[in-house]
């Protein structure tokens, strides 16, 4: 993760030192509206407070499909910085072990605040593949204990720690004519390890786990550059 962050910082430094091209016909800004599949892992990385979970217990997070928007600024024709806007919701269930099927987390909402620096590689016919990398800060809110956490652990409250991670991406923009309008395909992979804390009505912590959230985020949509 440190190496990926350093790589993103290096690309950003190069971008900042590259003179902007006045009168760029393609425009400095690009906005994308996309449909996105958020495909998290959700396995347990470490149990920090163990109430006696059965051996072999592990978890998974469910997938979600959401609209997303991206805003991108081009420092030069082939170097840009991009941020995305997205809200996604997930449950976490027991995937293996005697408690399989039990729900530990209900309706967890996530804002994956992401900033990537991208290197574009134009080909013929308006096809422009790209790669990128950068930091991602996952903000969790409105999470609730699932039915299994309430019945088996007596949990009445759940909190996830907001967490800094890293994202890498690859994709392609395809121009449709010379108007700045086009199509876009994008794939991101995140590495992030949030910690979940379940507590009971008296405030005592009954379970704490760190999870490999590590989602794939796959998007397709339209883009407008101006």
From TrEMBL:
Pfam families per record: OmpW
GO cellular component entries: outer membrane
Gene Ontology BP terms: transmembrane transport
Signal sequence, renumbered to the chain: 1-22
InterPro entries found in the cross-reference section: OMP/PagP_B-barrel, OMPW
Keywords for this protein: Signal
Top-level taxonomic group: Bacteria
Family: Belongs to the OmpW/AlkL family.
Protein name, entry field: Membrane protein
Organism this protein belongs to: Sphingobium indicum F2
């Amino acid at each position: 993760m440190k190496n990926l962050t350093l790589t993103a910082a290096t690309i950003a430094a190069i971008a900042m030192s590259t003179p902007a091209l006045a009168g760029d016909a393609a425009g400095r800004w690009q906005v994308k509206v996309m449909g996105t599949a958020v495909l998290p892992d959700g396995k347990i990385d470490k149990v920090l407070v163990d109430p006696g979970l059965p051996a072999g217990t592990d978890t998974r997070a469910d997938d979600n499909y959401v609209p997303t928007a991206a805003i991108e600024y081009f420092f030069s024709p082939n170097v840009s910085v991009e941020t995305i806007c997205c809200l996604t919701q997930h449950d976490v269930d027991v995937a293996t072990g005697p408690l399989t099927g039990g729900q530990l987390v209900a309706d967890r909402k996530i804002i994956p605040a992401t900033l990537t620096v991208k290197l574009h590689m134009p080909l013929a016919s308006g096809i422009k593949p790209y790669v990128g990398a950068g930091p991602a800060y996952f903000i969790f809110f409105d999470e609730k204990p699932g039915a299994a956490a309430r019945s088996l652990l007596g949990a009445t409250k759940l909190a996830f720690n907001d967490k800094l991670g890293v994202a890498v991406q690859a994709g392609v923009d395809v121009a449709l004519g010379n108007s700045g309008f086009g199509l876009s395909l994008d794939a991101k992979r995140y590495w992030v390890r949030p910690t979940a804390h379940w507590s009971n009505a008296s405030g005592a912590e009954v379970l704490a786990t760190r999870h490999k959230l590590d989602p794939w985020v796959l998007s397709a949509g339209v883009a407008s550059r101006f």
